[in-house]
Amino acid sequence: MLSYVNVTKKYGEITALDNVTVEFKSGVVNALLGPNGSGKSTMIKIAIGLIKPDSGSVSVDGVDPSRDPVSARRIIGYSPEEIVLYESLTPAELFSFVGSIYRIPKDIVKERINQLIRLFKLEEHMGKLIGELSHGNRRKVSLVLSLLHEPRVLLLDEPFSGLDPQAGRILKELMRKHARDGRTVVFSTHILEIAEAVAENIVIMSNGRVVGSGSPDELKKRLSASDMESAFLKATGLSEEVREMIRILWGSE
What we know:
Elements: E1 2-11, E2 14-24, E3 29-33, H1 40-48, E4 55-60, H2 69-75, E5 76-79, H3 91-101, H4 106-119, H5 135-147, E6 153-157, H6 165-180, E7 184-189, H7 192-198, E8 201-206, E9 209-214, H8 216-222, H9 228-235, H10 239-250
Helix pairs in contact: 3-4, 8-9
């Protein structure tokens, strides 16, 4: 489980997170949905211990990442939005190196690597330098790294960016399987259709605040919306703005 209690984070005069309290349960796929700049990446970076909140507390399966980031990272699988990898290594070298860091037995890590690279169709790229790979294949390498140690908590920041439809489908199934195994799965996205198609629980962010949470059906009922698009626009306060833009586009009558 991943929980935030009264978490606030500011960057100078900008409030990235404003007194956020929310819980992501194990056993379901959770989506963190919101426009760019709504605070999604900051939420994930605080959970991984990359940045500290100004106030409030975070618990990752009972571990406080701001106090013990090393222990938190042992149980977290993380794939960032901006992919940063050792470009002078091959995927094969990087996977083996990361497996040794997590102290996974060689036979087990080899089996996991083989399974994941088959799923993501990376076999023919294993001997190439990472710096030579396409953006999509670099994304796949990052996702393999996040899954390699079978983490208790999986945090994926905009993981579908750059993926082809086949790889996207595989990722959806991997997230669902991870959740069915009783683990915590959280992914961020600004694309409503992906959140609705994959997640059983959706947390909607806007301007650093949680403005809605629940299953798609719960959100639609709570916000008196006929579909998730309307629910999202109502939750984020964008309904009137969108209506005005449409009026301007088509002209007032």
